[in-house]
Amino acid sequence: MKEKITNLEVQEFLKSFEKDSKIEILEEGSKEITELEKIAKARGIELKGSRDLAVFKTIYAFTDRPNSNGAILPKKELLRVLPQIVGKPININHDRRLVVGSYIDYRYKQKENQVIAYGTFFKSNFGREFEQAKKLLKKKKLSTSFEIWSPEEKRKYRQDGSYELYQMELAGGALIYEDKDNEPAFKDAKVLSIAKENKEPKMELVYASKYKEDELITSAGETVVKEKEAVQPEIPKPIIKIKCSNCGEEMDYNGIDVKVKCQKCFAILDKSGTMIYPPQIKDFSVLCPSCRTGRWLILSRKEDSAKLQCSQCSKEYNVIFEKAKVNDAISKISFVYTSTISCPQCSKSIYIAGVSGMDSRLVKCGKCKLEFDYNIKNERYKRISKIEEVIPNENKIDNKKESSEEGGNKMDKEKKVKKASEKKVEV
């Protein structure tokens, strides 16, 4: 899964994704919500008998077909980012400050190319809004909308005018309360009016509006039954377990992601739990010399060195950490020192003074009263003494072509190139 995207700028809010979709609120005791309760409990969410949470389900045809705006979500691309929906916020009428719930699970129907999302509604916190949602649903005035970040320059246009979206990031979704303030004269105008008030350059947030639905089943037991069109049975998504080969931690695997980060040691694993990259513990701070960003993937790690890849420009670097210098003369004398440190809780500056022979001491913050241990020899980040870009050996390809014409010289030239490469890269 790609790293968290920051500094997103909105360019355009597109109308889309209205066909073949519906919303339901699930009733307590049903087979579907019983399964959902187990999944939620594994994530630390207690749904059974909750006074605070109502559960709803959204079904929508989402992949490999153009919507009314011509946008297409490629199946492979969507499935790659689909796990991002878990934990994302649900708001009302695309007011992203009014968060009334969150998504907790999803399904994908292979045959129908449908994604099914499950979410919670904070009904005790937003009782008036929840009651209003139920009333609007009975009047067929409630719909849902999903929000997706997607850069405009990554679209792939087809000959028929439709286009595919790439580099997507699921941003969450909204419940649309269609009243006098949110009922446009033209289809999808509500989305466009919001877009005009919020658009900014470079990045677009795609709003995926859904059709309203007749059936509403609440967790409180209130039911409005839809008489037509029986709900198709769904095959439960199996919960796959994998074990980290580095630390032995067992965790759930969604069956989609190619790479998984261990929740305990932070190593990057493959689908079988085998470690691909070492624990991503970044106890250093350095900017990429090429693009000046500080987001790194640790490819390999030793005590005194590491091999890094910039997550922005993909260039690779070898770094060497500075070794701690021991000064025997200073260790033989005692002196008084003064300094200031930051409280780890409230960030207030704390004045400290002590004797050099005492490395560790107990410090108390005068503002928040937090007591914590502080060691004067511990540093927040390791110091880097050298950073060097790893340059791919481009001559290797040319030598192979040349040696294929010269016959017996091929193996000897390949060995020379390999030795030169090995000397250049220090890991």
Number of helices: 7
Task: Please estimate the helix content.
Answer: 10-25%
- How many domain regions? 4
Major sheet, described briefly?
8 strands, mixed
Oligomer: single chain
* First-to-last CA distance: 26 Å
The count of β-strands is 26
Which residue ranges are poorly predicted, with pLDDT under 50 across at least 5 consecutive positions? 1-21, 183-202, 209-228, 400-411, 413-427
Q: Beta-strand level of the residues, as a percent range?
A: 25-35%
Query: How would you sum up the global shape?
Result: globular
Mean pLDDT: 72
How would you describe the overall organization of this protein?
InterPro entries: Znf/thioredoxin_put. Strand 19 and strand 20 form a beta hairpin. Helices cover 17% and strands 33% of the residues. The protein has seven helices and 26 strands. By secondary structure, the chain is α+β, with helices and mostly antiparallel strands. The strands form eight sheets. The chain has an eight-stranded mixed sheet. The protein has four domains: 204 residues, no CATH class; 40 residues, no CATH class; 48 residues, no CATH class; 34 residues, no CATH class. Helix 6 runs antiparallel to helix 7.
Q: What key attributes describe this structure?
A:
single chain; 427 residues; alpha+beta; eight-stranded mixed beta sheet; four-stranded antiparallel beta sheet; 7 helices; 26 strands; 33% strand; disordered N terminus
